[in-house]
Amino acid sequence: MSDITKQSLTELVENIKNKKLSSTDVTKAFIERSEKSKELNAYITEDFTSALDKAKKFDQKPNLDLKLPGIPMAVKDLFCTKDVKTTAGSKILNNFVPTYESTVTDNIWNEGAILLGKLNCDEFAMGSSNETSFFGNVQNPIDKDLVPGGSSGGSASAVAGQLTPITIGTDTGGSIRQPASFTGTVGLKPTYGSCSRYGIVAFASSLDQAGPMAQNVRDCALLQEVISSYDSKDSTSINFKRNQYSEELTNNIKGKKIGIPKEYRVDGMPKEIEDLWQKGIQYVKDCGAETIDISLPHTSYALPTYYIVAPAEASSNLARYDGVKYGFRAKGENLIDMYEKTRSEGFGAEVQRRIMIGTYVLSSGYYDAYYLKAQKVRKLIKNDFDEAYKKVDAILTPSTPSSAFKIGEKTDDPVSMYLNDIFTVPVNLAGLPGISIPAGHDSKGYPLGLQIIGKAFDEQNILNIAFAMEEKINFKNKITDWWIK
Amino acid sequence: MSIDLKTIKHISKLSRISVDEKRAEKLAGDLNSIFDFIEKLNELKTDNVEPLTSVAETTLKLRSDEVKSKNIREQIIKNSPHDNEDYFVVPKVIE
Asked: Is the pTM of this model over 0.95?
């Protein structure tokens, strides 16, 4: 039974389709492994009993034409799931049970998948280490006391630790790609407007996107095919021709032009990251692609821009948590006192910090100096990419400026924590797709990722490049199962 | 630029999050280091740049004004921390 959890999604689908495995076999295997893996703290809510019931039901009348036939899957606890508690990693939503389903998870269940449970994440997806979760740290399966990255830290840990064959996360500034990089897994942030935001707990609405996290590129392409859809319930959902990403996947990237942006060579970047990048450049050349030096001159302004735009939108989105309609409520002497105590006791420190930054930059007298300024710089950042894409088909960069760090190492200094997202944030600001693939190990044996950034709606192209590189890199994740007693 | 305790108190009031003195001091320190970092944007001249409000270049679609969700009163009230069957209940507002 143990080898079931080592199989990729693509293998599991195949084995279920040709009846070598039943959904019950597969679901049981992942539940057993999840139960032995409590130390990782990847789950906030387990839904195992119900998952097993659904698997048995599936096996009684299996529909093998579906894309995810009877595949069990845990998802980030930022997606609303009907009748299953959804917390967003926050005390303020600790008792929230949605009465509706997010479009992205609905798409997944409609293709035959089965919910295993809800995965840990930074509170309201605000964090880069999963340490802001009300439900505690998540361990990285790579090594004890190592953060899995964030905010989709539980998702990354669960895929790397084989607690789920595949998962979905959300990415506002790097929350899929950075944890994927830290755990030796593949993570795709799709083009803004590709996956519906309906039913996803909102953080920064102009940046948030859902995306797949997987053990390999093909699995990632298959899940992207399932979750990407036009949805009238999301006013920023875009109706474009979506590919059958996994069926159209090819390793033929001959003649593709890949940009190498010089501004991503930042001060103080470890030599290991630079070396990895050079290796990546060689890999794409070996695949027959051409690399071209490009410039994205406003790169260093992306992070300061992000830390105005994202908190501003968050302060507005999180105004809804007032202790009246749902969620936690503190006792107060009057209405205003109740609001203030509810939000003070219900939100954690990082969320409060960001609400305050956002409130300040939107407040009277500061709006133009901060928020408007940031929106203008955001335009310059997008223009940089538009200009670059006149010359190249995709862009190759490192995913993160370092490998995973220790739990507690960066919690006292918010700015040093924010710097983690230096290579991922520009992609969100410009609304582009980006994928992180594992590309090597540092001297400590921790995984390092490379990021491929594409043109808007060009997911197929970056998946193809990632697929071709994956073959060359032949990465093996070093998971020792240290947490299983 | 420096954010003082008075400003923190003001933002705390605007954002409806109560903070005690100790938290306020910590927040002032954090926010100052974050704003030092944000100030970098002032290096750029942006007078003639159009602000980017959304990367999704679409106009909002119109739809007919029809009620689609009916009889969902129970669902709406369901997650209320303090409900009285048909209403959301809040601390007394009018004496």
From this structure: yes
